[in-house]
Amino acid sequence: MTEELHIAGVYIHPLLAAAIMAFIAARLLEWGLQVLGVYRWVWHRGLFDIALTVILWGGFAYLLTLT
Q: pLDDT tens for residues 15-39?
């Protein structure tokens, strides 16, 4: 079982922390991809953004739950 993260006196589950980090990272990446014009080649931007967020969430969750 994974341990909670202790941040400023509040216990947070690692998956919640990973979700918050993924959301922030995805927004930054979306901004960068918009500036670079990558969305010109994307068929459905909404699906692409959700997939990007889920992939980042999985990656952050894996890194935070390593024991």
A: 999 999 999 999 999 999 999 999 9
pTM, entire model: 0.86
**Of 61, 66, 52, nearest to 14 (Cα)?**
61
> Which of 13, 65, 34 is closest to 52 using CA atoms?
34
- Helices 45-64 & 14-36 angle (0-180, nearest 10): 140
CA distance 38 to 32: 9
> Is the distance from CB of 17 to CB of 5 less than 8 angstroms?
yes
* Domain range list for the chain: 11-64
